[in-house]
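Subject: sequence -> structure tokens, single chain

Hey, anyone have a minute? Need the predicted structure for the following. Not urgent.
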Amino acid sequence: MVISNEGILVILFVGLVAGWLAGKIVRGTGFGIIGDILVGIAGALLASLLFPRLGIRLGTGLVSEIAYSTIGAIILLMIVRLLRTRRRW
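Reply:
Had a minute. Here:
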């Protein structure tokens, strides 16, 4: 699979938006802009693996990719929040 420069920019844009949205929804666990992009990209990967296996489809296009990525990033941020609270004990 070959990803063009435009494809990389779209992935970064979707990751940025998804990470930012997830950081706003799950307050107190933001990681800054770079961390939010990474969480958004990881959330996109998580959602792309998880949702088809569950039979969940949100549609096509950029908006659905942002929705997938945001939901995946929220799941990741909740996991990070659980791990952080358990380490403090």
